[in-house]
Design goal:
Strand order of the largest sheet: 7-9-8-10-11
Helix content: 25-40%
Largest sheet: 5 strands, mixed
Number of helices: 9
Radius of gyration: 21 Å
Distance between the termini: 53 Å
Shape: globular
Strand content: 15-25%
């Protein structure tokens, strides 16, 4: 019964969302075995990836493969699907989102800059943002017009491709054309300005991999801005507002 309820919750509430947890104190082997026995369901494709003590005493943070983070009791008989918050001097803090921030930052750190389209900061680099983008997206085009100002203020902008209509779309072909160009930044800018560029979809383009990465990280629309700390900003922010979000003025 628990497994069936969990399956329904995953399908309805967290389709495709992935959260990862960080290393913590070891979990007793008997607890880990109990949690796996209760929460795993091979028939439903449910498999436990990692188990760690949570911020709530007596509860464990259980990361499911290709699924959400759930908080389970020691025996696994009870579990909670949802974000965990704490209240501190600064107000409410979403601890689950903090975990996601760390995961996003770690995963992006493994990417090669050679697979990105980068607009470097002018002068001292104060910070950077990574943006999942689509050239057919109005707000992506609008954000791109803010890039020179962000660069001027010391923010490096790193682009990853996210064709929001999928890998069989015109948006995918246009993004691939930019990533396959000799001067990627120029072609990306021209496409975002609505200029006509000859289609060039080459072998070895990272566009499909970046799209899948974005989906696994919870990107559901563009632009999706990720800060150096891993915080995801879903949607457009003008340069002034974004500088405030980054803590840079």
């Amino acid at each position: 019964m628990i497994n069936r309820v969990l399956t329904v919750l995953l399908a309805c509430l967290f389709a495709g969302a992935v959260v990862s947890v960080r290393a913590a104190d070891p979990v007793p082997a008997d607890v880990a075995d109990s949690l796996r026995q209760m929460l795993e369901s091979p028939a439903d494709g449910l498999k436990v990836a990692t188990i760690e003590p949570s911020e709530i005493e007596g509860m464990y943070a259980v990361q499911l493969v290709d699924g959400p983070l759930v908080y389970a009791s020691r025996t696994g008989q009870f579990f909670i699907v949802g974000d965990l918050f704490t209240v501190g001097p600064a107000g409410y803090v979403n601890l689950a989102e903090k975990r996601r921030d760390g995961e996003r930052a770690e995963r992006l750190a493994t990417l090669s800059p050679a697979d990105m389209i980068i607009f470097p900061a002018k002068g001292e680099t104060r910070s950077h943002i990574t943006v999942f983008t689509d050239v057919t997206c109005f707000y992506c085009q609008k954000l791109h017009r803010e890039v020179p100002e962000l660069n001027k203020r010391g923010v490096e902008v790193r682009y990853l491709a996210y064709p929001r209509s999928g890998l069989a779309s015109e948006g995918y072909r246009k993004l691939a054309t930019a990533w396959c160009a000799n001067d990627r930044a120029d072609v990306l800018t021209r496409l975002k300005n609505g200029e006509s560029v000859a289609e060039n979809v080459c072998q070895g383009s990272p566009v499909a991999d970046q799209y899948q990465l974005g989906q696994s990280m919870g990107v559901r629309g563009t632009p999706a801005i990720i800060t150096a700390s891993g915080q995801m900003i879903p949607g457009y922010q003008p340069a002034d507002e974004l500088m405030g979000t980054l803590g840079l003025q």
